[in-house]
Specification:
Blueprint (H helix, E strand, L loop, with lengths): L2 H8 L2 H10 L21 E12 L5 E14 L3 E14 L2 E14 L4 E11 L3 E9 L7 E7 L3 E5 L6 H13 L4 E6 L9 E13 L2 E12 L9 E8 L4 E7 L3 E12 L6
């Protein structure tokens, strides 16, 4: 396991971060024609149970137990996403409890994104981060502004998109028959870091009358040229953007997130 992978165990919040992104390319961004299909994402509240599925012995990981609540609100002009997570990690050398809140606000036209994050580790400090990003256009370059923990400004890569647009585009293209796709993604969950995300779409299933797609997503640091991803995710994603199952593969261990409760939310009167 590489050093970055080991760091994930010391920062369990990363598991939640990747979850947000996945509701979200290859080493080179591939340009594809837009699909003519329209995806209607569901405003919803979902509760997930997270457990250690396999592995961990080689790095002293004994168990992982946690719960995550995610709310996707349709505010007409924006998608507002709230995440709340409680995770208990037991290692051979001790335990760690993490509680975290993550709020994001994404313009539906894809132009603007804001995030606010607060995480408490026990034992350990409380960490806060916040910032916003503006997507690049034909007339203006994109930018990322970090407000906390330290102020900084960064370029937003051309073609980079935000999480809800990422989800919608994956589903539209899967419905149109595409089985391999690539995106550049920014979600603010690791400061100014931007990810290249490749997605392979497998077989679809019909579950309670709705189509759900088996997918595998691989996350790389943007432009790194790394051969191995930071993490891979197996997902069962419904055609309305609801994830039924997620398995986070870190190489030496896999953590599974299973949907336990689902509630449809009012769309805000749009």
């Amino acid at each position: 396991m590489n050093l970055k992978g080991r760091a994930y165990l010391m920062e369990p919040m990363y598991i939640r971060k990747v979850f947000l992104s996945s509701m979200a390319g290859a080493l080179v961004l591939i340009s594809m024609p837009a699909s003519s299909q329209t995806i209607d994402l569901l405003a919803h509240r979902a509760v997930y149970e997270m457990t250690l599925e396999s592995g961990g012995d080689a790095i002293g990981l004994v168990s992982v137990h946690g719960g995550l609540v995610i709310e996707v609100e349709d505010r007409c002009e924006t998608w507002n996403v709230q995440q709340r997570v409680l995770m208990q990690i037991l290692r051979e050398d001790g335990g760690l409890v993490t509680t975290s809140t993550y709020d994001s606000f994404e313009a539906k036209d894809g132009t603007w994104y804001r995030f606010e994050d607060e995480t408490t580790n026990d034992p350990g400090p409380t960490e806060r981060s916040a910032g916003e990003a503006v997507a690049a256009t034909k007339l203006n370059s994109g930018s990322i502004t970090i407000e906390e923990p330290e102020t900084s400004r960064h370029d937003m890569p051309e073609g980079a998109i935000f999480p809800m647009e990422h989800i919608s585009d994956i589903l539209e293209r899967a419905l149109a028959g595409e089985r391999f796709m690539s995106h550049v993604l920014f979600d603010g969950t690791d400061g100014a870091t931007v990810n290249d995300v490749t997605t392979i779409v497998g077989k679809s299933e019909t579950i309670e009358g709705q189509t759900a797609w088996n997918m595998r997503l691989a996350f790389f640091d943007h432009g790194s040229g790394d051969e191995l991803p930071n993490v891979e995710i197996n997902a069962l994603l419904r055609d309305d953007g609801v994830a039924l199952e997620l398995a986070f593969d870190y190489g030496d261990f896999i953590i599974r997130s299973q949907l336990r409760e689902l509630e449809t939310l009012v769309d805000g009167g749009c």
